[in-house]
Amino acid sequence: MKNNQFGKKGWTPDRIANLDGKTYVITGTTSGTGFEAAKLLLSKGANVVMLNRNPKKSTQTIAALKLELGNHIDVLAIKMDLAEQASVKKAAAEVLKTVPQIDALICNAAIAQVPKQTITADGWESQMATNHFGNFTLQALLFPLIDKSNGRIVTVGSMGYNLGIKTIQFDDMNWDKKYSPNGVYSQSKLAQIMCVYELQNRLQKAGKSNVKAYACHPGASNTSLIKTSGSLMTRFIWQLMKLSPLVQSAEKGAYPQLMCATESDLDQSGFYGPTKRMHTVGPVGAHKLEPHAKDKEVAQRLWEISEKETGVTWNI
Ligand SMILES: NC(=O)c1ccc[n+]([C@@H]2O[C@H](COP(=O)([O-])OP(=O)(O)OC[C@H]3O[C@@H](n4cnc5c(N)ncnc54)[C@H](OP(=O)(O)O)[C@@H]3O)[C@@H](O)[C@H]2O)c1
Q1: Is the minimum distance from the CB of 109 to ligand 1 under 6 angstroms?
Q2: What does pLDDT average to over the chain?
Q3: pLDDT tens digits, one per residue of 101-116
Q4: Is 221 in the pocket of ligand 1 (CB under 6 A)?
Q5: What is the rounded average pLDDT of the residues 53-73?
Q6: From atom 38 of ligand 1, which residue's Cα is the shortest distance away?
């Protein structure tokens, strides 16, 4: 692996200059890396628009942020349940109505390891619905404003992209035949990452937009992810793992998405995250992405199916 372009310590938020006048839209700020990322952006003077599914938790989050950073912070919460297309569409419309610019949309929210196959109102398996289709629609609908702002789209993936099957299971996208909590999580994260590079290809081909798209992951971070949607057993295993040196703080887990949202001239072809101990912890920088995540043929097919399934077309 090449030396880290940001030096031995890797990328850290010290590199973020003043963010006065910048606006970041971020999903899932009620806990974990999303909370930490929102806090850091606000502490640097940015405006933050939080898209969360639970308004009560949003209110508590804003109160916690104000307690820590002061009442002057510019933060707004809009309700959005990524698992429901109707809610994503409503939230996107509200963002377009109320927010004048988007310097970066940070797609951070996700669920993981849902123990039993659950089908959402839109007819999709819940991890695919939330992590892939929800983000696909949100990004497409906010794209015109991100484009107008010459902004970025940041996708928070996972090393899980490489832990399941190494392609998209087009013949059974709801995993009716052999549901696996882990397998479907991996699939949803692979789908998210593939769409980042497919978006780059489409933008490059169209040649008329300055929007940049980035893929990153938080390594293994001490957050609420498994507690929220995992089974008792996975929660127990995760509790034990948290005690090991293979797990870092949620704050450090937020660095890759913060880097992708703010670092100037960052290479879009990279995949960003912690670089040590199998990419679970350590200095943040670019690291290897397995070729199946950039398979153009599969990505194109996934994109077309996703447009058809969601009924949303990207205006690129
Ligand atoms: N933690 C890790 O080790 C790890 C490893 C690899 C990748 N990741 C990725 O890191 C990202 C952040 O996760 P985290 O670890 O910080 O987990 P987390 O603490 O559980 O935070 C997830 C956030 O997403 C929100 N969310 C979940 N479902 C939602 C929905 N349907 N609509 C809107 N918001 C929803 C949660 O809101 P509620 O409070 O309402 O539940 C919460 O704010 C995810 O993309 C995850 O896949 C994490």
Answers
A1: yes
A2: 94
A3: 999 999 999 999 899 9
A4: yes
A5: 98
A6: 30
pLDDT tier at 236, thresholds 50, 70, 90: low
Of 31, 50, 284, the one to substitute when testing ligand 1's pocket (max ligand atoms within 8 A of C-beta) is 31
**Ligand 1 binding pocket mutation candidate from 222, 225, 226, 278 (most atoms within 8 A of CB):** 225
Residue nearest atom 20 in ligand 1 by C-alpha distance: 225
3-state secondary structure of 137: helix
Domain ranges of the chain: 19-308
- pTM here is 0.96
Domain covering 19-308 in this structure, CATH number: 3.40.50.720
Q: What are the contacts of 186-189 at 24+ separation with CB within 8 A?
A: 186/158, 186/160, 186/161, 186/162, 187/127, 187/128, 188/110, 188/127, 188/128, 188/130, 188/131, 188/132, 189/110, 189/131, 189/157, 189/158, 189/160, 189/161
Phi, psi at 9, each rounded to 5°: -80, -5
Lookup: tokens for 206: 């169209």
Burial of 206 from C-beta contacts in 10 A (0-12 / 13-18 / 19+): exposed
**C-beta of residue 216 within 8 angstroms of C-beta of residue 256:** yes
Compute the chain's Rg from CA coordinates.
Answer: 18
Q: In angstroms, rounded to a whole number, what is the distance separating the alpha carbons of residues 260 and 249?
A: 19
In single-letter form, the type of residue at position 245 comes to P
- Rounded CA-CA distance 212/266 in Å is 9
CA of 72 to the centre of ligand 1 (A): 27
Token pair of 22 as six digits: 């910048």
